């Protein structure tokens, strides 16, 4: 499957943090959810892809071409929503669209007007009068009105009410019906990613802990509940994290199918993406 974005050993060093040799291919026609706690490196990675920050090591490719070989116009095909980036707050929606027309060669007025109607965006109000959800919809309308093939969102749905978030997820699913389209979305709202993501990439302390197909991820991991004595009988390579409780241990098991064959006496329960992440972040050492 052709990669929309290729990352090979991407490394960015700061004084007290390092984005540590990130390698993964993001296939065309997919939605990839990027998850991890605050400070894990999600925004740094997205900014590296967008050339908003430099990297010290590694290589980034877009549609198979190295970043340094791309023309400046490649960003015309990227729709971006980043937190804290606001401008033109005194414009109304139509004035904002006129401004965007001058930035994108492939801008489509008719498509933008259609999204303003679909999203029920008030053209008479200035952007500073919009709710957070309405601002998000306006940003999304812009992203979808210049023939973007790649959407990159950083916590775009954070703080929005469930109805607005659900509307946005529907739009993403519609966008991805074109096999040339791809979306990379960072979010703390795991339930949203469970609805739409094809793949989940988990960053923790600057390292890529796993990058897997969502369905395979949920099949690969499971949780067992056991006594301390039972825990000691399980090889460490199966366990990705433990939690103590009054009855013994809860443990996150990887390679679930193989484990069940080797240890049929244990009950392995299904788990969720959020629980998997919590075991990695807060679970005790093996």
Key descriptive features of the protein:
286 residues; alpha/beta; four-stranded antiparallel beta sheet; elongated
Explain what you see.
- The chain has 286 residues and is of the alpha/beta class.
- The chain is built from ten helices and 13 strands.
- It has helices at 42-49, 93-101, 109-118, 132-143, 162-175, 190-196, 214-220, 228-232, 256-262, 273-282, and strands spanning 3-13, 18-27, 31-35, 57-62, 65-66, 78-81, 150-154, 182-186, 199-204, 207-213, 222-226, 239-245, 248-253.
- The strands form three sheets. A six-stranded mixed β-sheet has the order 6-7-8-3-9-10, sandwiched between helices.
- β9 (199-204) and β10 form a beta hairpin.
- α2 packs antiparallel against α3 (109-118).
- The radius of gyration is 21 Å and the shape is elongated.
